[in-house]
Every structure is written in structure tokens, then in C-alpha cells.
């Protein structure tokens, strides 16, 4: 009976998804209504930047695991934008999607958003800072401007072997010791301006998993299954839906303090996820969250525990910043021509089976299974603000480690 109801629901969802694909103007209008408060608009803007960044990174190689905590990259680039000419700032803000906001209090709104997603219960710690080369003559106003606004003072480097350790120590300290060795090698000698950003996420489920750690098969594309630890729970309350256009089933799993994880599980192990990646926007996910329907499922998830680092500098061209790269105008940072050299980003995430509620044992186990045992995409979203906290593509969990 349960199953039939769900299938009916899926039918409804299907027509919903199809309705969504018509008419861009309609979508544009809806945007205005979906995000009303400054915080919600900022949440949407940072998420859209995050999806763009994720697409740029994910499309470099479709066969790799990819992870980002884009909000901390937004924070780093926003700090940088405080040091540029007005026209360069406009270009950076466009890439960061701030041009949609029309928010004169932009920096305060971002500061409030960052503070709200970093409250202890949500499980996110994040850090972002600008580092400047020793050789640059620097304008002191820039240091105080950024520090006053974001509580993080840009730092001038000493120009020696200690710099790498200094940066890594700061990141480690800001993330409770969880993000170690952000830089694996020293910054390039000639780089003038560098940003670092990092995030650690260890969210707690609303509903706990009773079984965890058993090794089970995870199908990888074009290879033998790999054995990875999984978490399992019957009658797990999720919100669910199927998207026939994207050929995937979506589950939203509630975490504590109004955070949730969305999983996009393609129907097929060898599915091409390009279309799915292309469709991710703040608006799409917001619509989705209002459309998914409650269900109880037998839920099986890989136990994820990993670190991932990347320099997103080579992706800026794809974010519409080609012109800016040639003309950065960091004139409020230094009277000398200074250039951005790197945007190092490192994330660490852990999942554990704990949660503060138990799944229902009153009813017999649901026949509906949601088994995440093949490549998938996931995102972690702060439901209060709509901000994207974390996004990832898991192609082969066997390759993941901290
Ligand atoms: C995946 O699909 C996109 C278009 O949706 C196509 O451009 C791309 O080449 C495909 N990738 C692979 C590996 O087949």
C-alpha cells in the first residue's frame, strides 16, 4: 500500500519536474518570490556561485570525486573584492552572484549569514583569509576594513619557510584542528595575493542509524564493486521524489539544527551526471525542497570520511572572470601592481550514525529502499537561510580518506 502511494506521489513529482523545464521568464519571476529576505537572497546568491564553481570543477574530469564548501570561497573572494577598484569589484560581485541582490548592506548581510551557519549545532566550521606577499607595499586601510567587517585580518607573509606552517596552523586552529595541512607545498614564490578557505563539516542526523560500518558493495562505473562501510536503518523518515528528466531519485535527509542533506542518486551506475550538475541552482533546490514528499525507507548510505583540497584559481575564467584576471585592479591593497596567485580551498567531512531520534519500530520495515551504493551527488543545505554549505560528487568512495 505504502509503495503504491509513493509511486503516485512520484507521478505527481514527475509532472512537477516537467512543468519546471518550460519558460525561463516564468522561472525568473519566481526567483523574486522564492527569496524575499536579504539573508535568503544572500543564501541563494552564495549557493548559485557555489553551483557554478562546482560545475566548473566537476566538469574538468567526470571520473573523480569532487567536494567544495563554496560559502567559504565566497567569503575569501568577498574579502578580496574590498581591495579592488569599483569596476573590478563589480566583476567579482557578478561572479559571486551579488548583482542579483541589490543589497546596500551586502557585507553585513554576508557577515550575518556566515555567523548564522557557523552556530555550533549545525556542524560547520569554516575559515577564509587573505595572505599577502612580503615584497608588496600594503595599504593599511585594507587590513582594518576587512578585519572590521569580517573579523579576520589579512596577513602579510614573512617570505620564508615558516609561511606555509603559519597558514596551515591558522586554518587548523579555525577549524578546531580538523583541517590540517591546507597547503601541501609552499605558495609560489612570485605570487602577490593569495586567499585560503577551508571548512570542516560533521553534521548530526535528526534520526540515528542503528547499523554502521558493515562493509558492503558500492558499484563503480566500469569496474568491480568496491567494499565500503555503510550505515543502514529501516523505516527512516526522509523526503523523497523522482526526477524523470534527470533520471535520478532524490532524498532529503534531515540533520540537526535545520540543516539537511540532499542526495541525488542516478538510476544507473554509468549515468552521465552532466545534465544533473547543470540543473543545480538555488531556485531548483528550493523548489525541490517544497516538492519532495515524506516517506519511510530502508536507508543505506556510505559512511563518508574524507578530505579534499584544490586550487580554484584555474576555474575563474569559467565563472566569467577572464577579463578581471587580466585587469584585477587590487589598488586598495597595494599601490604596486599586485595579482591574485591562488585560491586554495580544503574541506574535511565526516558522517557518523548518531542522531537524537530513533526511527519508528512500530510498523513493519518499509519495502521501499533507498540504497546509495553507486555514484551520487549530494549537497548540505542550511534550511534557515537556504545557503549551500557543502557539495560533493562521490564517484568512488574507496579513494576517500582524511
Ligand atoms: C555527458 O553529457 C553531456 C551532455 O549532456 C555531453 O556533453 C558529455 O560529453 C557527456 N559525457 C560523457 C562522458 O559521455
Automatic annotation (TrEMBL):
PROSITE patterns: SERPIN
Keywords linked to the UniProt accession: Signal
SUPFAM superfamilies assigned: Serpins
Gene Ontology terms: cellular component: extracellular space
GO molecular function, one term: serine-type endopeptidase inhibitor activity
UniProt cross-references to InterPro entries, sorted A to Z: Serpin_CS (IPR023795), Serpin_dom (IPR023796), Serpin_fam (IPR000215), Serpin_sf (IPR036186), Serpin_sf_1 (IPR042178), Serpin_sf_2 (IPR042185)
GO BP term (any one): negative regulation of angiogenesis
Residue ranges of every copy of the Serpin domain listed in the record: 51-397
Protein name: Serpin domain-containing protein
Organism expressing this protein natively: Salarias fasciatus
Organism phylogeny: Eukaryota, Metazoa, Chordata, Craniata, Vertebrata
UniProt gene name: serpinf1
